[in-house]
Amino acid sequence: MDTPPNNLDAPSVNRQIKDGVFRLLFETPENAAELYYALTGTKCTPDEIKIITITTTISGKLKNDLAFVVRGRALVVGEHMASPYANMPLRFLMYVGQLYEKWIKMKGEDDFLYRSKPYKIPTPEFIVFYNGATPKPAKEILNLSSAFEIERDSSLGSLELEVPVYNINKGMNEELLLKSDKLRQYAEFVAKLREFNNDYTDYIQAVRETVNHCIANDILADFLREQGGKIVSILATEYNEETAKRVYATEQAEEMAEKLLRMGLSKEQVSYVTKLSLETVFQIESEIQ
Fold first, then answer.
1. Other CB atoms closer than 10 Å to residue 251's CB: what's the count?
2. Which of 22, 49, 21 is nearest to 166 (CA)?
3. pTM
4. Per-residue pLDDT tens for 85-134?
5. Gap between the Cα atoms of 259 and 253, Å rounded
6. CA–CA separation, 255 and 235 (whole Å)
7. pLDDT score at 6
């Protein structure tokens, strides 16, 4: 397994490595078929699964964790979350347009808009798996309409999008986890990662111990042996992108603070506007005097 960088921020890494594991684990048709059976009771073969996950976009920002088409009839869009997920219906709405466009282009039927007969598309189905530290119910339903500014006018067309969220932390939705061995092992991996993260001050050591423990105890063992290097690569790349964004935002805030101080605003006012700590504002003031 490749050696990961040693200057990683634990909360960011914790989220990114779990996202990477989820995406890599279920992007294989075999595992996606198992997951679909666990959720719906419908059995299908890997040959009947077509993975169409969004991996790149023009903006480079909108990617989803998992999307696949079952028998050309159902479009399943799945996400893993370890943090607040109130805006997931809106995110799914943004995903689904791109996914349909991708599916239609894959079939070479871009001209469907000019046909006289209705064009059939796979039925969209959505799912979120949650395993964050904040307590959540075993299952809840999120609705896109809860984000609408005003109640819709019944005389006009509107839109609804429902997203079920399953809590897959230990002790939650055990019946579902029994139906999908891969999902159960994934939940165990995350639980062990959280445990070791609390035990070790060095997050990288916690990650190594988690991987070693899981391989030794046959938890995603083959998957971790095969994909360990790729997981670390995703982890490092995504972390570096997040770090760059944070550094840039901090530099911008510090430049603004300097300008506001020169304009005569108080340190308290500057701290409030820029969201920088008073200690940081004091330091910036001392440097420009």
1. 10
2. 22
3. 0.73
4. 889 999 999 999 999 999 998 988 888 778 888 888 999 999 999 988 88
5. 10
6. 30
7. 39
Tokens of 169: 């932390």
d(C-alpha 90, C-alpha 262), whole Å: 42
Distance CA 92, CA 81 (A): 13
Q: State the angle between helix axes of 29-40 and 10-26 in degrees (0 to 180), rounded to the nearest 10.
A: 90
pLDDT at 237 over 80: no
Cα–Cα distance between 44 and 32 in angstroms, integer? 10
List the 162-167 sheet strands across, edge first.
49-51, 66-70, 74-81, 123-130, 162-167, 139-143
Amino acid at 238: E
How far from 37 is each of 25, 40, 155, 204, CA to CA, in Å?
16, 5, 39, 35
DSSP, collapsed to helix, strand or coil, labels residue 75 as strand
Q: Where are the beta strands (DSSP E) in 82-137?
A: 123-130
Strands (E), the chain: 49-51, 66-70, 74-81, 123-130, 139-143, 162-167
Backbone angles phi, psi at 263, to 5 degrees: -80, -10
Q: How far apart are the first and last CA of the chain?
A: 51
Q: What is the pLDDT of residues 247-270, one digit of tens each?
A: 557 767 888 888 888 888 898 888
Amino acid at 244: A
Check the CA dihedral 65-212-235-168 and report its sign: positive
Other C-beta atoms closer than 10 Å to the C-beta of 230 total 12
Q: How far is CA 56 from CA 3, 30, 87, 116, 169, in A?
A: 26, 23, 21, 33, 30
Q: Which residues contact 263 (CB under 8 A, 6 or more apart)?
A: none
